[in-house]
Amino acid sequence: MKPKIVTIGVYGFDEDSFFEALRKVKVDTFCDIRNRRGVRGSTYAFANSLRLQARLAALGIRYLYRKDLAPTQAVRDRQAAADSATKTAKRKRTALGEAFITAYRAECLAAFEPDSLLNDLEADAQVVALFCVEKDPEACHRSLVADKLAKELKLKVENIMP
Question: Most buried among 67, 90, 100, 147, using CB within 10 Å?
Fold first, then answer.
Protein backbone atom coordinates (compact mmCIF):
# COMPACT_ATOMS: atom_id res chain seq x y z
CA MET A 1 0.00 0.00 0.00
CA LYS A 2 1.31 3.46 -0.89
CA PRO A 3 1.53 6.05 1.88
CA LYS A 4 -0.47 9.23 2.17
CA ILE A 5 1.59 12.43 1.95
CA VAL A 6 0.95 15.43 4.19
CA THR A 7 2.83 18.70 4.13
CA ILE A 8 3.49 20.93 7.09
CA GLY A 9 5.44 24.08 7.86
CA VAL A 10 6.39 25.38 11.27
CA TYR A 11 5.38 29.04 11.01
CA GLY A 12 2.05 29.69 12.66
CA PHE A 13 2.25 26.73 15.02
CA ASP A 14 3.43 26.65 18.60
CA GLU A 15 5.23 23.56 19.84
CA ASP A 16 2.17 21.80 21.25
CA SER A 17 -0.09 22.46 18.28
CA PHE A 18 2.62 21.40 15.81
CA PHE A 19 3.09 17.97 17.34
CA GLU A 20 -0.65 17.60 17.95
CA ALA A 21 -1.26 18.26 14.24
CA LEU A 22 1.18 15.45 13.35
CA ARG A 23 -0.45 13.12 15.85
CA LYS A 24 -3.96 13.96 14.66
CA VAL A 25 -3.27 12.86 11.07
CA LYS A 26 -1.25 9.84 12.30
CA VAL A 27 2.12 10.78 10.78
CA ASP A 28 4.52 7.86 11.20
CA THR A 29 7.38 9.23 9.07
CA PHE A 30 8.62 12.82 9.09
CA CYS A 31 10.63 13.87 6.04
CA ASP A 32 12.67 17.03 6.59
CA ILE A 33 13.44 18.70 3.26
CA ARG A 34 15.16 21.85 4.55
CA ASN A 35 18.69 22.79 3.59
CA ARG A 36 19.48 24.29 6.98
CA ARG A 37 17.74 22.37 9.71
CA GLY A 38 17.39 25.24 12.12
CA VAL A 39 14.95 28.08 12.70
CA ARG A 40 15.94 31.41 14.24
CA GLY A 41 14.37 32.56 17.47
CA SER A 42 13.02 30.88 20.57
CA THR A 43 9.45 30.64 19.24
CA TYR A 44 10.40 27.90 16.79
CA ALA A 45 13.39 26.38 18.60
CA PHE A 46 11.44 23.11 18.83
CA ALA A 47 11.91 22.77 15.04
CA ASN A 48 15.71 22.81 15.26
CA SER A 49 17.00 19.45 14.11
CA LEU A 50 18.18 17.81 17.33
CA ARG A 51 15.20 18.91 19.42
CA LEU A 52 12.83 18.01 16.62
CA GLN A 53 14.29 14.56 16.17
CA ALA A 54 14.19 13.87 19.91
CA ARG A 55 10.52 14.87 20.17
CA LEU A 56 9.57 12.87 17.09
CA ALA A 57 11.34 9.80 18.49
CA ALA A 58 9.46 10.20 21.78
CA LEU A 59 6.23 10.21 19.77
CA GLY A 60 7.25 7.13 17.79
CA ILE A 61 7.60 9.06 14.53
CA ARG A 62 10.52 8.15 12.27
CA TYR A 63 12.73 10.99 11.00
CA LEU A 64 14.11 11.08 7.47
CA TYR A 65 16.31 13.83 6.03
CA ARG A 66 16.32 14.38 2.27
CA LYS A 67 18.73 17.22 1.57
CA ASP A 68 18.47 16.49 -2.16
CA LEU A 69 14.97 17.99 -2.01
CA ALA A 70 16.15 21.22 -0.36
CA PRO A 71 16.54 24.21 -2.68
CA THR A 72 20.11 25.31 -3.28
CA GLN A 73 21.29 28.77 -2.30
CA ALA A 74 21.10 29.85 -5.95
CA VAL A 75 17.46 28.78 -6.13
CA ARG A 76 16.65 30.47 -2.81
CA ASP A 77 18.33 33.64 -4.10
CA ARG A 78 15.79 33.75 -6.95
CA GLN A 79 12.94 33.78 -4.46
CA ALA A 80 14.72 36.39 -2.34
CA ALA A 81 15.00 38.62 -5.40
CA ALA A 82 11.30 38.19 -6.17
CA ASP A 83 10.40 38.93 -2.53
CA SER A 84 12.61 42.03 -2.60
CA ALA A 85 11.00 43.27 -5.81
CA THR A 86 7.52 42.94 -4.31
CA LYS A 87 8.64 44.05 -0.83
CA THR A 88 7.31 40.81 0.65
CA ALA A 89 8.71 39.52 3.93
CA LYS A 90 9.60 35.81 3.82
CA ARG A 91 7.12 34.91 6.55
CA LYS A 92 4.37 36.86 4.78
CA ARG A 93 4.85 35.22 1.37
CA THR A 94 1.80 33.31 0.13
CA ALA A 95 3.14 32.01 -3.20
CA LEU A 96 6.42 31.08 -4.83
CA GLY A 97 7.79 33.18 -7.66
CA GLU A 98 7.97 31.73 -11.16
CA ALA A 99 11.78 32.11 -11.22
CA PHE A 100 12.05 29.98 -8.06
CA ILE A 101 9.63 27.36 -9.38
CA THR A 102 11.46 27.05 -12.70
CA ALA A 103 14.89 26.85 -11.04
CA TYR A 104 13.75 24.38 -8.36
CA ARG A 105 12.17 22.09 -10.92
CA ALA A 106 15.33 22.19 -13.05
CA GLU A 107 17.91 21.88 -10.26
CA CYS A 108 16.15 19.62 -7.76
CA LEU A 109 13.04 17.93 -9.10
CA ALA A 110 14.45 16.97 -12.50
CA ALA A 111 16.85 14.54 -10.82
CA PHE A 112 14.38 13.42 -8.15
CA GLU A 113 12.96 9.96 -8.65
CA PRO A 114 9.81 9.70 -6.51
CA ASP A 115 10.37 5.97 -6.04
CA SER A 116 13.61 6.83 -4.20
CA LEU A 117 11.53 8.41 -1.44
CA LEU A 118 9.33 5.33 -1.21
CA ASN A 119 12.47 3.18 -1.07
CA ASP A 120 13.73 5.21 1.91
CA LEU A 121 10.55 4.50 3.89
CA GLU A 122 9.96 1.61 6.22
CA ALA A 123 7.60 -1.01 4.79
CA ASP A 124 4.84 -0.04 7.23
CA ALA A 125 4.90 3.72 6.50
CA GLN A 126 1.35 4.99 6.06
CA VAL A 127 1.47 8.77 6.53
CA VAL A 128 4.57 10.73 5.52
CA ALA A 129 4.95 14.42 6.38
CA LEU A 130 7.01 16.63 4.07
CA PHE A 131 8.40 19.40 6.27
CA CYS A 132 9.84 22.84 5.71
CA VAL A 133 9.21 26.13 7.50
CA GLU A 134 6.78 28.27 5.49
CA LYS A 135 3.19 28.45 6.72
CA ASP A 136 1.50 28.32 3.32
CA PRO A 137 2.30 25.28 1.19
CA GLU A 138 2.04 27.42 -1.95
CA ALA A 139 4.88 29.57 -0.57
CA CYS A 140 7.17 26.58 -0.07
CA HIS A 141 9.00 24.06 -2.20
CA ARG A 142 7.32 21.24 -0.28
CA SER A 143 4.23 21.86 -2.43
CA LEU A 144 6.30 21.22 -5.57
CA VAL A 145 7.64 17.95 -4.14
CA ALA A 146 4.15 16.91 -3.06
CA ASP A 147 2.76 17.70 -6.53
CA LYS A 148 5.39 15.52 -8.17
CA LEU A 149 4.66 12.65 -5.77
CA ALA A 150 0.92 12.99 -6.32
CA LYS A 151 1.19 13.05 -10.10
CA GLU A 152 3.85 10.41 -10.66
CA LEU A 153 2.94 7.96 -7.91
CA LYS A 154 -0.77 8.75 -7.60
CA LEU A 155 -0.39 9.53 -3.88
CA LYS A 156 -2.95 11.45 -1.87
CA VAL A 157 -1.68 14.77 -0.47
CA GLU A 158 -3.09 16.84 2.38
CA ASN A 159 -1.70 20.16 3.59
CA ILE A 160 -1.71 20.69 7.36
CA MET A 161 -2.24 24.30 8.33
CA PRO A 162 -2.08 25.97 11.75
Answer: 100
